[in-house]
Amino acid sequence: MIETAIVVCPRGELPEAAMLGRRVAGLGLLTRALLTARHAGIERLLVVASPAQQCELRRQVAIDRCLDGHVQWVDGVSEIVPPAGCSTVMVPSVILQADALRAWRVRADTADGVAIPAGVEVGPWAVPSALVGACVAAAREGLAGLERFHQMLRSQARARAVPWEGAAPQVVRSARDVPGVVQRMLRTQRSAEDGPIVDRFVNRTISERITRVAVRGPVTPNQVTVASLLTGLLGAWLLAHASFAASVSGLVLFQFSVVLDHVDGEIARLKFQFSRLGKWLDNVSDHVVDLAVIACVAWRVAVAEEAWSVLPLGIAAAAGVTGSFAVVFWWSLAERHTSGNEKARRGAETLGSMANRDGFCLALWATLLVGRPAWFLWTLAIGSNVYWVVWLAVCSLPARGETRRTSTAAACGPGPHRVSTGSGEAEADAHKPD
User: Fold this and answer.
1) pLDDT exceeding 90 applies to what percent of the chain?
2) pLDDT tens digit string along 84-123?
3) Rounded Cα gap, residues 171 and 181, in angstroms
4) Is residue 119 part of a domain?
5) Region for residue 338 given its phi and psi (left: phi exceeds 0; alpha: psi -120 to 50; beta: otherwise)
């Protein structure tokens, strides 16, 4: 397994060197490259930069506590002592996805010669120790130097293309490239579990615009999660009032809280700000908002119809939403959905693919706008309870010893919504900041 990443900064006189201090989606290019390598499971990080470059870049990197004790600085090829086997050689101007890099380096470790991602000529590279010096020297000449080095290796049949799966590497050659790169990075934050209507055309469209601005400042994912919670609770309170104006205002605020719930996850993934606290805060706050909406709608129906017998219906809806949340969140903590049980794993994947925010949001908007809030409670009381019962029947529960944090959060049922990755993307380790 490749355990060393060598991040090579271009020589100071090259135009590319001016981009090293450029912040892209809230992080400097060098800091982003190092954090990507760390989250890909690489423990030893070497940065090759001239003494003049190191003076500024050390301050940039020192801001992130996750890199403390993991970065070694060298100012020339002669100072590098490559380990046996292969090292990953990277350049800061090529932005990678950590999960994709993690999977690729496993495949690249078995390749002969120098391994490069298929279709990408400028990195990352898996380089055997005998060629590390030559590859680093080429990388010091910038992207053009790496391209020449690649052509030489290809002419000597020493380069091997290894398939790259996941988000494609993004190359930042100049300041003009940054807006397009950030937009493509945000698009990779979209999940296959997003709803095909509301999530795709409303929630993500708005959240990406907010995130582009938010990542430039000191806003943290947990702060956005709290804002989402407060906005959702205010919206729920307005939904308890029967007037049309209160209904529309409450619906808009609730929908905005869902948008913010996407924003916290986008910021967390773009800036590597994961934590256990964030994971729990994000998922619990979402569920609290859902329960508040149900309670306020039930109250509204009971008061308007003077029929307090509707409260058991509200309780059934809340119980179904809570059951769906509890069952699927427990599964989200299981390692790869208990890969040893193929039937349960496939069942969880199938049911999880049905989970998105569209059902909850569309039912809420449609029933309140036509003045039939009781229909919303009936939809949840039936749908969410059927969902968690079917989930248990098909998948049961993983054994307690199997519940571990995973790299992706599982999905929740059609009643509430999927268990959100949010600011607590389960990829996080305990030492990462909140």
Assistant:
1) 61
2) 889 999 999 999 999 999 999 999 987 778 999 988 777 7
3) 8
4) yes
5) left
Q: Under DSSP, is residue 133 helix (H, G, I), strand (E, B) or coil? A: helix
Distance CA 10, CA 140 (A): 4
The residue range of the domain holding 24 is: 4-164
Query: Under 8 Å CB-to-CB from 316, ≥6 apart: which residues?
Result: 377, 381, 385
| CA distances, 24 to each of 29, 66, 149, 161, 313 (Å) | 7, 19, 27, 28, 49
Q: Return d(Cα 9, Cα 229) in angstroms, integer.
A: 42
Residues 286 and 395 in one domain: yes
Residue 250 tokens read as 């409450």
Would you place residue 190 in the very low, low, confident or very high pLDDT band (cuts 50, 70, 90)?
confident
Whether 154 and 236 map to the same domain: the answer is: no
Residue of 195, 80, 185, 85 lying closest to 129 (CA atoms): 85
Is 169 a domain residue?
Answer: no
Tokens 């205002």 found at: 249
**Which one-letter DSSP state was computed for residue 1?**
-
Residue 100 lies in a domain: yes
Q: In Å, how far are 24, 96, 115, 135 from 48, measured between CA atoms?
A: 21, 19, 20, 12
Backbone angles phi, psi at 87, to 5 degrees: -120, 155
Q: Is residue 340 part of a domain?
A: yes
Mean pLDDT of the chain: 86
Looking at the fold, whether 160 and 201 belong to one and the same domain comes out as no
Same domain (yes/no): 285, 332: yes
Total structural domains in the chain?
A: 2
CATH number of the CATH domain containing 372: 1.20.120.1760
Token representation of residue 269: 């993934």
Tens of pLDDT, residue by residue over 347-396, are 777 776 666 778 899 999 999 999 999 999 999 999 999 999 998 888 87
- Peptide bond before residue 169 is cis, with ω within 30 degrees of 0: no
**Running DSSP on this structure, what letter comes out for residue 128?**
E
Burial category of 40 from C-beta neighbours within 10 Å (exposed 0-12, middle 13-18, buried 19 and up)? buried
- Same domain as 208, residue 122: no
Residue 336 clears pLDDT 50, i.e. is over it: no
- When pLDDT is cut at 50, 70 and 90, the band that residue 423 belongs to is very low
Contact by Cβ (8 Å): 17, 143: no
